[in-house]
Write a structure and sequence with these properties.
Blueprint: H1 2-32, E1 41-44, E2 48-51, E3 85-92, H2 94-97, H3 106-116, E4 124-131, H4 137-151, E5 155-161, H5 164-167, E6 173-176, E7 179-182, H6 188-193, H7 197-222, H8 243-247, H9 275-283, H10 294-316, E8 320-326, H11 329-332, H12 334-341, H13 355-366, E9 370-372, H14 375-385, H15 399-413
Parallel strand pairs: 3-4, 3-5, 5-8, 8-9
Antiparallel strand pairs: 1-2, 6-7
Helix pairs in contact: 3-15, 4-10, 9-12
Length: about 425
Amino acid sequence: MTRRLRNLTIAVAALLATLVVCELAVRYLQGTIPSPDGTPYRNDPDCGYVLNPGDPGLYPPDDDRHVNPLGFRDRDRAVPKPPGTWRLVGIGDSFVYGDVPIAHNFLRVLDDSLQAAPPAGAAAAEAMIAGLPGWDVRNAVGLMRGKGGVWRPDVALLCFSVDSDVTGIPIPGAVFQGNLHFTGSREPLLNLLRKSRLYVLAEQLYGVRAVNTLRRWRAAARFGGAAAAPPAQAVTTADGAPADAAEGAVHPGAPVFPGMWGDPADPARRLPLKPEFLRRRVDNLPLYQVEAPPEVARWWEQAERQVLEFDAACGRAGTRCVLLIAPSEIQVDPVVQELTLRRAPLPAAAYDFAAPSRRLRAFAADHGIACVDPLEALREAQRRSGLRQYIPNNGHWSVPGNAVVAREVAEVLGPLGGS
């Protein structure tokens, strides 16, 4: 028995030593070997990472695939700012990057309006897009600290995503070898594993299956071994649509939505909501609990400190900070809200879906930060028009949603010098 134990100890020690050597080798190679051609991202010393610019002239400036020399999906911009130009820069995550054709991105809508009618006293005006998937307020702070004094925007619009800029604090994004990875998680085991570059590399190659397995284990534990999604009930949703339609059943004659952007005009709600999409909404429910869990309270404190750091960086650059609250779809769409609550571990009364927006508005007012909160405007637009303000199964603003947000931002910009 002693010999077997000794052999097992030697085998475990050899395995650990091999893993350490492999970890060091991966870190060394990622730091010394240039990123392969064609990778989407490159590291940036200020904001962490940006897109790899395309070859000059490869796509027209208004093409969805055009990436400007600054590393963003935007028109080319002059740096430093030309004299007499009034400049707005929108900074944030995938809400700024946009999941709609670039012509309908709310910042592009503002850019077209500003160029057509510059503010009084300005020879020209523009609205820059400076946002990427995976960014959070930390990236925005780095951008303003490093580039704010060079770009010299008159207004910096910080797009604060209610979901990801709070609950996403433990999940920072980082670029290795030109590819985006997430180096943390809210799940303790996955958070520990992602501290290893070797694991992150393995996750890139094989990890989708592994991560889904971890999530299934977590869901099974949460629901006592049952499936994460309870079966649909034979009732209607808040807007009168059959529950099984929204739960994912396929109905004859159901509309087919073109492309990833889709057409939000679906009054019958027949486009299925995918279980994975609803699972992510359930994961974020602690953010809306009336009695916030301790970890959510800590994330809120960190997020608010980061907003103050961004405001301070704006002040050093001579820029006015404006906070744009990007509400989650569950705050706007009653069907998404109802279907998520069916899977919730607590009763519906335990959640207040307007609370994050109220908190951010009060925080901005207390610190003298101008604020844009489009929550009620998005709710009203969906009630009045019947059009989804978010892309189905995506969570980002649809074309109508972007138009609403552009109008709300424009109303706040007027008194700050923007037309």
